[in-house]
Please model this.
Amino acid sequence: MKRVSFVIPCYRSEHTLPGVVAEIEKKMDSLGKYEYDIILVNDCSPDDTLGTIRKLCREHSNIKGISFSRNFGQHSALMAGLRHSDGDYVVCLDDDGQTPADEADKLLDKLEEGYDAVYARYEHKRHSAFRNLGSKVNELMARTMLGKPARLYVSSYFAVRRFVVEDMVRYENSYPYVIGLVLRVTKNITNVVVNHREREEGTSGYTFKKLVGLWFNGFTAFSVKPLRIATAIGAVSAMGGFVYGVYTIIKRLVNPDVPVGFSSTMAMIVFFGGMLMLMLGLIGEYIGRIYISLNNSPQYVIREKINFDDEEI
Model:
């Protein structure tokens, strides 16, 4: 009998988490053909999410808990859950009830068909306008920088095979980006349509700052295209400046009475100065991340494990 591990990053979900767990149990018990466990990763939530996880772990031997020492973000929580999973298939989903846990069988069926990874696609997303905008930008970035197939829709609700997980957890740098890790392993990926529910309570934990940080993780950790784009822009700008300079000289020779414009000179200085600062900042971002990685900055720090055989604090 194959084993399925469910990995759920948890943040501000003390009230929604029991319902998500109950849905998983009901669906998996009805299928009857899988063994399963559930790994709940508390990303240092400010509410009593950890207390809820402890209660669920006491009531169910197949539920395991991990608690971080501080907030490391959703992708770090996913990495921790993946490293502690042992299922032949691993399903990752949200803790707020918006991703339908009772439709996990749709993802598992696609894995059984031979796909290496399956992402849930939502026909009608129930996120806020800000979150939907962030998702679209993330989608564009993944397609442009990471080579994601245009037809593939990526979301936080997905399932992968064991060999994909084994390769993903080899990544130990400080800035994990789960979509990039999946795409570097396989392109044998498909989508399956599921429902997307209204949020039961609270708001998304993704602020503008966190979304920007997530995008930077994606294109600086798994792609050098931004540097190549900066190089191309620099070359085009330099060529444009050269052509403009030649044009100015010729115009002056043809008509000596033509005044040399101060405003155009300042505009060129500001433009090229801005481009140089932008490119230097981009290079600095890469160098900074290299420096942090060389210092072995951790993806996460675990304060407590619950229901693990090697439980420790």
